[in-house]
Amino acid sequence: MQSKFIALLSGAALSLGLVTAASAADMAARPYTKAPAPMIAAMYNWSGFYVGINGGGGWSRKCWDATSVLGIAVVPSVAEGCHDASGGTVGGQVGYRWQAAAWVFGLEAQGNWADFNGSNASLFLPGASNRSKIDAFGLFTGQVGYAFNNMLLYVKGGAAVTNDKYDGFVTATNVVFDTGSETRWGASVGVGGEFGITPNLSLAIEYNHLFMGDRDIAFTAVAVPLASRTDRISQDVDIVTARLNYRFGGPVVAKY
């Protein structure tokens, strides 16, 4: 009886092994699946020509020293005092950038209308005040920046030019008695941060400091067209603007 039971179990095990092997043989081979393609992310590209608009404000520190009055030299020169000429500005810019890896290089020209004005009482001419106004300025600069995809941080530097107007007036009545003007060249340095909103549109905040030095300005009397005085006027300018740029073209750069 025991031998029959063992024989029965052995037969069942053999049958189960044969069925399993047959089922495995009948199963379809596993299909071959290609490895997924590497992910490709679009990298923001800062290369190309761009144009834009800007607006903001600025202030200019001016100090006056009288060097002559009615053709008579004032030796040594006498300080007339200092003032800050401040106000708003609006303008535009055009430039070109090219990108090498994360580094971005560029050239730019900017022109702005301005209304930076201020005045102070003269310490040399009793009852008189001096007034100044910057009504326009321009920047011609090179740029070096580093891009974090669509975020660009940059520094810039180059030449600066301002259009300045000056006058002397009677403090009590505001009557102008002499005027002067100049186009002054100097140097500028700046820093900015720019954010790419779309592949072609970007928004930036920029600060520039203009080193405009000292110049001798000849004033002409209003009542009589004769030289009234000469003042040596020093000038530095600080400007903060928001900028909106539109970039034309530029290839799409892939980042794996």
How would you characterize the overall build of this protein?
The protein has one helix at residues 2-26; strands at 41-43, 48-69, 72-100, 103-121, 128-148, 151-170, 176-196, 201-221, 227-248, 253-255. The protein is mostly beta strands. It has an eight-stranded antiparallel β-barrel with strand order 2-3-4-5-6-7-8-9. The longest helix is centred in the N-terminal third of the chain and has 25 residues, at 2-26. The protein is elongated and about 90 Å long. It contains one helix and ten strands. It has a single domain (41-255), classed as Porin (Beta Barrel), CATH 2.40.160. Residues 1-28 and 251-256 have low confidence and may be disordered. A hairpin with a 2-residue loop joins strand 3 (72-100) and strand 4 (103-121).
Mind telling me the CATH class?
Mainly Beta
The number of domains: 1
CATH architectural grouping: Beta Barrel
Oligomer: single chain
The CATH topology? Porin
Across the major sheet, the strand order is: 2-3-4-5-6-7-8-9
List the uncertain runs.
1-28, 251-256
Q: Give, in order, the helices and strands.
A: HEEEEEEEEEE
In total, how many beta strands? 10
Structural category is mainly beta
Q: Beta-strand level of the residues, as a percent range?
A: over 45%
Offer a concise description of the structure.
The chain is mainly beta and 256 residues long.
List the helices and strands and how they pair.
Elements: H1 2-26, E1 41-43, E2 48-69, E3 72-100, E4 103-121, E5 128-148, E6 151-170, E7 176-196, E8 201-221, E9 227-248, E10 253-255
Antiparallel strand pairs: 1-10, 2-3, 2-9, 3-4, 4-5, 5-6, 6-7, 7-8, 8-9
